[in-house]
User: Fold this.
Amino acid sequence: MRKKLILLFDAAGVLAALCVLAIFVIMIATTIMRETGIKTGGSDDVTAWLTASAAFLGLAATFRHGDFVRMSLITEKLSPAWKLRVEIFCLVVATAFTGYIAYSICRFVYESYEFNDYANGLVAIPLWIPQAPFAFGTILLFLAVADQAWHVIAGNEADYIIAVRERHARGDFSEDM
Assistant:
């Protein structure tokens, strides 16, 4: 089951990257269209939705790969026993918070669907459609954090700690900037 979850997190990360690619294509196409006198209505709306989708779809993969801001400057000074306790505490609290956030956002998207809200811009579509990746991304973040909490409680080292250590072993310290 865990391998399927990890595959899902990585697939969402790929979707986030595709959203960024789509933003690039839309921006270039819009620039070319403006220069040739073709109207470009709605491209700003779509770009904004893709930006939000890219940000939220990439959350779970980003968390798993150790690219979130963490308290490692503090925890690395602790003894192994205290480091584990603090790690578990932080993961349990993060699981609760991300669960609440995912619930709230899903409720928000459902209300947009229920009330039949439409976008205000030039592209008039039901708002729940561009909001759905936002909800899906937060659900995936909740699952990723809960998975890590369970994984660490079971006595394993967190995936994000292993990922950072492997990057450092390769000489890549880019996330420290």
